[in-house]
Design a protein that fits this description.
Layout (H helix, E strand, L loop, with lengths): L1 E4 L2 E7 L5 H8 L4 E4 L5 H10 L4 E4 L5 H8 L8 E2 L1 H7 L2 E4 L3 H14 L5 E4 L3 H4 L1 H4 L8 E7 L3 H9 L4 E9 L5 H11 L2 E6 L2 H13 L4 H16 L4 H23 L1 H6 L3 H31 L1 H10 L4 H13 L2 H10 L8
Parallel strand pairs: 3-4, 3-6, 4-5, 6-7, 7-8, 9-10
Antiparallel strand pairs: 1-2, 2-10, 8-9
């Protein structure tokens, strides 16, 4: 359906207009191979399996992810195979390896992308920055993406709750003339709440900016700054954490999600109301130059080059664990760990 957001009209596909029964009918003769069982692979593959789609999983043997797939009920030789065998068996290859993994496996995968097959992504990185990734697909296949706007863990959890994460979709190459119906079918099959149209380039630009911005990078920076100043001014660890993180995540963000920021402002104290309305533009003006710099770094390809270089280092995982360890052991998140364990549901 077409929906207007102010003066902008967008294409939105809901479960009502594209039901699961229609999706299953369209893909009933396909073999969907989910390649990779890391971040998005488990949620997407299990949701497809539970929804009755013909799906198999490809993963490197003797890895932690292979063991996880076995624990999740995939059976070796029946619906769990090596990456190579799953690539050969599949007609729709869902390329869900990490961006670094996609680069390294591409020379192998390309041999299995024979005429008429389909290549699926959940991220536009590999093709948008193909001059850096060297991912150049054949002209004789369909290429499309569905990108859930959340983690694979959340995709699975909300599916089991009967809900769904909204997803974007895009067509990169329509060799068969049927790419759109395949794309929407998988989007509904993995449990999307609804699907909105984008392009590979727009998906990866918005995704990289979002991850580094309000979704992860900026929010951690704001958490850290506010917690630090409260502690420096003599506030206790629990008070500082509760006013910085706990109240936001446990009380206010659910209200914003349900009703919107204006409703949340309207339904808090007049003191909070006035302060928030007086200060939000200061934070916008302070961070806008950083977001402009961030978008320019993403759109220029500089950020992609840094990602590829960093993630390709032999000791990347060791360095990553050291960085996460430092974050985990910071006072902010050490306090957070203690407070999370004090929540009432943890005591049941």
């Amino acid at each position: 359906m077409k929906i207007k957001f102010g003066s902008v009209e967008e294409t939105i596909v809901t479960r009502e207009e594209f039901p699961l029964s229609n999706a299953k009918k369209i893909l009933k003769k396909e073999t969907i191979s989910v390649l990779g069982y890391g971040v998005q692979g488990p949620g997407q593959s299990m949701n497809l399996r539970d929804n009755g789609f013909p799906v198999i999983v490809g993963q490197r043997k003797n890895s932690n992810s292979w063991e996880k797939a076995l624990q999740d009920g995939w059976i070796e030789g029946k619906n769990l195979f090596s990456l190579e065998e799953a690539s050969e068996r599949g007609t729709i290859l869902m390329y869900l390896l990490s961006d670094a993994g996609q680069i390294s496996f591409w020379p192998t995968l390309s041999k299995y992308l024979t005429k008429g097959k389909s290549l699926y992504f959940s991220h536009g990185f590999g093709l948008t920055f193909c001059d850096k990734t060297k991912i150049y697909p054949s002209k004789h296949i369909d290429i499309f993406l569905v990108a859930p706007k959340g983690s694979g863990t959340s995709l699975r959890r909300l599916f089991l709750e009967g809900k769904g994460i909204n997803s974007s979709y895009a067509i990169y190459q329509d060799y068969s003339g049927k790419s759109l119906e395949k794309t929407l079918s998988i989007g509904i099959g993995i449990g999307s709440g609804f699907l909105f149209k984008t392009s590979f380039k727009n998906e990866v630009y918005s995704d990289l900016v979002g991850e580094r911005g309000t979704l992860m990078g900026a929010i951690q920076g704001i958490f850290s700054a506010q917690y630090q100043i409260l502690r420096e001014k003599g506030h206790s660890p629990s008070e500082s954490f509760n006013e910085t993180v706990e109240e936001l995540t446990q009380s206010l963000m659910p209200l914003v999600s349900e009703k919107g920021m204006d409703w949340m402002y309207e339904n808090c104290s007049t003191t909070a109301q006035r302060g928030a309305l007086d200060w939000w533009e200061k934070f916008r003006d302070a961070t806008l130059p950083i977001f402009k710099e961030l978008y320019n770094e993403v759109s220029s390809g500089n950020e992609a080059e840094r990602i590829i270089e960093s993630n390709s280092k032999i000791d990347y995982r060791i360095q990553l664990e050291n960085e996460l360890k430092n974050l985990r052991k910071s006072e902010l998140w050490d306090v957070g760990s203690i407070i999370r364990n004090l929540r009432p549901e943890k005591k049941k």
